[in-house]
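Board notes (copied after class):
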Amino acid sequence: MLAEVRELLVDVLFDFDRQLFSAWWDDAVAFVRANARQGSDLAAQCLREYEERPEPCPHPAHRLFRPSGYANVSKRDERDEFVHRDRFYSQGREFSDEYARRLKRHLCGLAGDLFG
């Protein structure tokens, strides 16, 4: 469930703030590259799939991003404080409203599945 909520956040961010999404994407790619160098077959496969595309472009739905997207939001500084947290919380009312709308739709869908 937590992963699904994060995926909703990144989808809204992709629609509202491409610059912040790009920073998140770059961290995810660096994380996947490091894991591939350490021998992760999954990371290596994700990189190949991305790099072999005719025109690779960052997108939240790409297989490379989904399992590695925590790298950016969990990044901490030397004082052990989250580096990017304020950028996510300062997106503005329109962003917050859209995220709430998508989250509500998701949660209502789950409730419908559970309780019929």
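Comment from the instructor: The mean pLDDT is 87. DSSP finds six helices and no strands in the chain.
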